[in-house]
Amino acid sequence: MAESVADVDRSQAAAPGGPPPAGPRTAAPMVVGAVLTAVLLSLAGRYGYHRDELYFLLCGRHLDWGYVDQGPLVPALARLADTIAPGNLVVLRTPSAFIGGAAVVLVAAIARQFGADRVTQTAAAVLAAASGIVLAGGHLLSTTSVDLLVWLAAALCVVRMLRTGDTRWALGAGLALGVGLLNKPLPALLGVGLVAGVLIAGPRRLLSDRWVLAGTGVAVLLAVPYAAWQAAHGFPQLDVAASIAGGDSSYSGRIDAVVLQFLIISPFAVPVWVAGLAALLRRPSWAAYRSLAWAWLVVVTIVLVAGGKGYYDAPLLLVLTAAGVVPAVEWARRGAPRIRQALLVTAAVLMAASSAVLLLPTLPADRLPGFVVAANYDAGETIGWPEFADSVAAVHRALPPPERDRAVVLTGNYGEAGALARYGPQRGLPRAYSGHNSMATFGRPPDDADVVIVVGWSRPDRLRAWFTEVTEAGRVDQRVDVDNDENGEPIFVARGLRRQWSQIWDSEVRHGS
User: What angle (nearest 5°) sits at the alpha carbon of residue 326, between those of residues 206 and 4?
Assistant: First the structure.
């Protein structure tokens, strides 16, 4: 039966000798995306806050055009969610759940631009829904969630521009990148990769096209508020980047970055995105898309050389996956189709099952196997924050009443400060301060605060330089056997401040524990 006009985008038909036309439209990817969003929402309230989510809530109480380590977008989302439903974890994570579903639809839409038929688009949607980066980004509210949506939306506009030759799609790409630059600087890395890809593989005329230049202008204009904030504060994001490059963060380090290339989508999906990379580089009919393959190669090289986090390029791996589904389904239809199709289905099932166990809170928190936290550091970061606050509260209650009334808390990182801001008031805890990232700018202890409960501080020798007496008063007990940064760490009580906080905060404390 002939396909209807609605099924095929006739207005964007391929030029003679150009790439094949877009595939027919299908609603299946939207169904897959909706199912994924529903699953993510059903699991959103399990375990607990991630340390970054607790930090975003604190940043949201101090809304600004920028922060030391991020732009204003995610803190604003956290503020909105906490205003709508204070303390509701499901509402906080709702934007991410919808981003996960949207990512599925975008990956299938990119595959359609490569000529994928309905079955192939559905396969692309299923692979995206089972991928590690989509599940992780869809479960937690994070800057990575927004990055995922931004990069995929920009990539879809670029792919459509390359297929049709209609450079007005550059405006959409510029809009996506500009919004992303209000989240963090990483969309600029995608821009660099795309420009480099066009320089290497063409068509170079795009670099002087008026619509491409206009799209670039849109991205730059939207980024101005955050860039101005960074400039006014001495570009602290550069210090954060240097810290990440030095290995002082999760998922950082060149070896980890290389390994993550084979894990972040799924080990079972590696043959698919490798096939996509090969097809983009070698298929004669896909010559117009060759710059996309080079864009990923340039971006991943920059990440490895600069020591960035290994998931920075993950959205581009999804673009390669969208491309790779086309030859993968073609392969499954040749030779012994039943066996090959069974292999693809088996790989998809294994991919979905392993991703769900490792990246979603599907197992009981009190019996979480060690291999889950070993594979997914973030899982351990969502367990035990109320118990963490209980441990600090026990030390606070043990203080003599005069000290208890004037004590404050100093934490080693923003997650600990965020946990005490969230759970401390109902436990009678005083305000928690931290010198970590933007927490340092949210206020310092009063100069007369000479009794301090210190938690998360890995260098008690620094404390002894600031206080006349430092004693260990307890340990964090999260009451679960989970390996994270807080469980079992010491809690100190420091007395007798040698100098005022105003004298040591900016020069010493805010540089970290």
Answer: 85
Contact 466, 503 (CB under 8 A): no
Q: Which of 399, 413, 392, 513 is nearest to 463 (CA)?
A: 513
Helix (H), strand (E) at residue 453: strand 451-455
- pTM here is 0.92
Confidence of residue 480 (pLDDT cuts 50, 70, 90): confident
For residues 93 and 339, what is the distance between their CA atoms, to the nearest angstrom?
Answer: 40
Lowest mean pLDDT among 208-212, 248-252, 253-257, 455-459: 248-252
Enter the tokens of residue 219. 């991205």
CA distance 170 to 148: 18
Q: Which helix (H) or strand (E) holds 32?
A: helix 28-43
With a CB cutoff of 8 Å and minimum separation 6, the contacts of 271 are 324, 328
Say if residues 291 and 198 touch (Cβ distance below 8 Å): yes
Closest among 129, 128, 123, 127 to 341, alpha carbons compared: 123
Peptide bond connecting 19 to the previous residue in cis, omega within 30 degrees of 0: no
Q: How far is CA 11 from CA 161, 209, 472, in A?
A: 13, 21, 72
pLDDT digits (tens, 9 = 90+) for 94-113: 999 999 999 999 999 999 99
Sequence-distant (≥ 6) Cβ neighbours of residue 83 within 8 angstroms: none
Interhelix angle 290-306/143-164, rounded to 10 degrees, is 150
> Tokens representing 465?
């330089």
pLDDT category at 216 given cuts 50, 70, 90 is very high
Structure tokens at 161: 């521009």
Mean pLDDT of the chain: 91
Work out the average pLDDT over 454-459: 86
The tens digit of pLDDT for each residue in 111-126 reads: 999 999 999 999 999 9
Report in angstroms the alpha-carbon separations of 257 from 68, 125, 251, 314, 379.
Answer: 24, 25, 7, 11, 19
